[in-house]
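Thought: the user wants the 3D structure for the chain below. I'll pass the sequence to the structure tool as-is, report back what it returns, then summarize two notable features.
Action: structure_tool
Action Input:
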Amino acid sequence: MAGIGFELKKAFNKKGIFALLKAYGYSGLVCTGPMILGIVLLVGIRLLGIMADAAKSDLGLLNAMVTYTLLASLVAVNVLAMVTTRYIADCIYMKKEEEIMPSFYGSISVTLLLACPLYAIFLHFSGIDFSYRFCCYVFFGELVVVWTEINYLTAVKNYREILKAFAVAVGGSLAVGYILAVYMHMLPTIMSLLIAMCVGYGIMGAWYYLLLSKYFPRGRCSSMKFLGWISAYPELAVLGLCLSLGLYGHIVIMWASPINNCVKGLFYEAPQYDVPALLSFLSILITTINFVTSVEVEFYPKYKNFFGLLNSEMTYSDIEQARIEMEQTLTRELSYTFLKQFFSTMLFIILGTIVFPKLPLGFNEDMLGIYNVLCCAYAFYAIGNATMLIQLYFADNRGALISGATFMFFSFVGTIVTLFLDIKWYGFGFLLGSALFTVVSLAQLRKFLSKILENVLSRQPIRNEEVDGIMSRFALKCENVYKKIYKKEILREEEE
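Observation:
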């Protein structure tokens, strides 16, 4: 995220309303573009299905297949997302950028190797046609690649190309969907629309890869070297899984509620909960963008100055002054972020109460109640997530894991409990988990900052020690095998 902050600071320093709008537009695209792409494609593909006179049951199946595949791919990628993000940051800091692209190939390979067989088993017993299973499987693989690319994309500063990728991916997908489903009618409508979704994310993935391959050097190291970071930072792997399960788990649990609907086979939905969840999730876009443009841009220079002084021959008073400035900036920017989220949530609740019942979304009083509760829940999640990311900035991985695990556990348990209650209580389980996420993350951050010099200096190892773990030993073996295979090429490059 700091890589984005460096470039955005230049954009925000330019004067004029158009420069300001451009900076916010770029940050919004980088931070929320993939989610916006998914929503635009889902809405657009559904409209194409209606234009092609697809049956309501077929559209429901299409929505269920896409939703299941999206959620499954996000959970799969998030297991390694935090670890690879730390690995990228360390490589950039150590000026070993040539080791980044090999880790990109390795993380994709490991995720696909572990996740694809599991999703294939689910699809095999899902009860849908083989052609649909095949498309979902391909779509799942594409999504794994795209989500992984996004973890690496934050260091790429070519925002104009990123904008082109979004536009072309959406346009290409909708164009293919229109030609196949509305104009030609060569294939079943749902099959045509699934192919269109695959085309959209395929374009996005290919373009992202070109951007990454142009920015990062090819590199000469084992693609499994990054796995050693799992042994060094095991909390990050667990944290990524906790966050994804906490964020999406309440939706999946509701598919087993009394308001569920069996679309076909193992594909279920709960429209009375799913639609409010999607709409309320949009209320955190402002915080997501603001966190990058405000907290990262303003806080990072103070953060960098403080840690820079710790590594220089400065007096204690200088260090203490830098610490005070850093904490004041952090408090101010987080407060601004929280305040903006509060007003955003209130705005969404007010407008949603007025507008949504008038739209053809099937909103009733129960759905409106769920929507209001989830708006508050996602507000707490956004605040907790922003605070947890700051914990990671200070390398308080254990504190961040405590925050994330609290969120997952109480979101899960709370949602399961609400299944046995009236529909008016739906959403309160996720609200409980999100509220505790905020409370615990703020408490953990405050605890860390209260003894920041002790935490940063005194708790570090006195001498450098190699991390010994299963994954680090495996990574070392892979690196040795790689060096043996490419020994001549490595020596020739070192001589050059």
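Final Answer: Structure generated. Confidence is low (pLDDT under 50) at residues 1-6. The first strand starts at residue 261 and ends at 264.
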